[in-house]
Amino acid sequence: MAWTRDEMAARAAKELRDGFYVNLGIGIPTLVANYIPEGMSVTLQSENGMLGMGPFPYEGEEDADLINAGKQTITELDSSSYFSSADSFAMIRGGHIALSILGGMQVAQNGDLANWMVPGKMVKGMGGAMDLVAGVKRVVVVMDHCEKSGAPKLLKQCSLPLTGAGVVDLLITELGVFEINRGKTPVKLIELAPGVTVDEVKAKTEAAFEVAV
Amino acid sequence: MVDKVKTDAVEALAGLLFDGMTIMAGGFGLCGIPENLIAAIREAGTKDLTVISNNCGVDGFGLGILLENRQIKKMVSSYVGENKLFEQLYLSGELELEFNPQGTLAERIRAGGAGIPAFFTRTGYGTLVAEGKETREFDGEMYVMERGLTADLAIVKAWKGDAEGNLIYRKTARNFNPMMATAGRKTVVEVEELVAIGALDKDAIHTPGIYVDHIVKGARFEKRIERVTTRQKEQA
Questions:
Q1: Do B225 and A74 touch (CB under 8 A)?
Q2: Whether the Cβ atoms of residue B85 and residue B67 lie closer than 8 Å to each other
């Protein structure tokens, strides 16, 4: 059985360490906040200008001046702080954030990540993703293993425009976990979801990888 | 004697708008946007605008109302995914678009306001963003040169301000507003509360009045929320 979205988020949460300042992207990465281990101090950064993101507000207590980078209403904690976008990205680009967990469209065996544009089709923009992968110490990508069409997303080379070159440390899909190590060493399959076989992963992956499960 | 305080958004922008100008507009999504000043620009009908703003509002609100009125020629943004009309105008070639990584955009504006013409950043190296730009190695790492950004006019939203133009922002509505306040050749601010001089804590002022040319108390703040997200109250 491949992992569910929540199981993928729970696996990503195992990358958290006590005292980490962390930035979580939109989608499955946002769910990682639900799996922060008890007794571990993890501070969530929101790149629109906040450290110490709290949970979603109760109905009727939403504040239009308090949103996360996904534009959802959130709350503050006693320990929270607010700052400008320039200060926020100084934290990100200055290497002060320990971990970035974000989504992806394609990851390549050389550590490249594409997640911001499909030429001629999707015009959304990169937001803060290029800054995060360029500046954060460790970059974990959580994505579906294949496209809806069945085409692989872990590739020899990305075909979509890059978000960053040689930036991915770890990749988590519903099938397993891959050590990418920014392309400095061969890709290694280090964990399999329960019931998933190496052969299944091989059949759904274009990139070359070593098996170390 | 100089009086920065104007009675309404139209008066605050009087004489500052012209076709083909470049305008910086504060805000992240719909949070912290100068909605009264945007409405006044729509009313003025100023055309062929280059607008520098992280996003372009949504259909029917924020900068989206300037798109609907075909007043914008070019956007400089990091993310425009919330706007169907935007996508349509861009793909049909009616709208120019320059994507900047969000941190690069923020830093370009900060640099512009501080008189720094260019800087180097790792962000975007090896991507489309670096195409045509100077790259350089520092201490074994590759960096891309990005230019400082200024504008003919910056429109800014703050929470509280005084007649001197001293400003305080609230929570995540701060975002791009403080940098933009420094990077406009003219800066016009709308506030929710215009307070007496001396009422603001001088140690808590985010934007000192030197950057502000005109200040106006917004007539109406809709403060629309893009994605209301809530949780259930735990049962007692």
A1: no
A2: yes
Cα A120 to Cα A87: distance, rounded to the nearest angstrom: 34
pTM for the model stands at 0.97
CB A63 within 8 A of CB A57: yes
Beta strands in A20-179 (DSSP E): 21-24, 43-46, 50-53, 76-82, 99-102, 106-108, 113-114, 117-118, 122-123, 138-142, 154-155, 170-172, 176-179
CA distances from A101 to A11, A168, A209 (A): 11, 10, 22
Structure tokens belonging to residue A91: 């934290």
Using the beta-carbon criterion (under 8 Å), do A50 and B28 form an inter-chain contact?
no
Tell me, what's the pLDDT at B235? 64
The nearest CA of chain B is from the CA of A184 a distance in Å of: 15
Chain A neighbors of B78, CB-CB under 8 A: 125-128
**Which chain A residues are within 8 Å of B101, Cβ to Cβ?**
126-131
Q: ipTM, 2 decimals?
A: 0.96
